[in-house]
Amino acid sequence: MPIKIFTALLVQDVQNDFLEKGAMPVAGAESVLEPISTMAASFDRVIATQEFRPKNHVLFADSHEGKKPGDVIEIDGQSYVLMPKFCVEGSIGADFATGLRLPMSRVIAILKGTDSKVDSYSAFLEADRKTQTGLQSYCEDRFVNRIYLCGLSRNGSLIRTALDALHYEHQLYWVTDAVAGLTQEDESGISLLKAKGVKFVTSEEVMQRDIR
Asked: Where is the Isochorismatase-like domain (predicted)?
């Protein structure tokens, strides 16, 4: 008997604070709003992640007396660059981006960065590489095994999500015109994903897919 394929659109961190006028702008963020909105309307399952950080997050500069954004601190033997407050839980900055249209009756929200002592990048695992966000549990419960990935990348976060998706044996599609925030440092990660068989598609090709 053939294995049933359940498909989801994974929209990562498309939030107000990552837009041009937000606290932590991601280059080109506004360009993904329309292709993601168009694609989302065609999916029965839309997973949207949100960074949702406590206001006293350890990497916020004002959590440390006398520190400012850009200063470096050491935590458990590792160096971290302090940041301004962004995507604070309950704030407008943490909301889905203005202009992003999602079919909310079909959306599951996955919150990231909720632990004040742990950073967040991948949609599957927090930066300690132990704490689950709940995304993989959702995929297992709903038998989701094919993911179309899009959204905003901060410090390689989309690459990390993609690699985790492959680790959990999902079929992965990277939607090229619905991704922003990549840098030259991500080029090696993109090459690795291609070598691992990730399919790179456009949002137009996603709209023409056979499997819904």
From this structure: 7-204
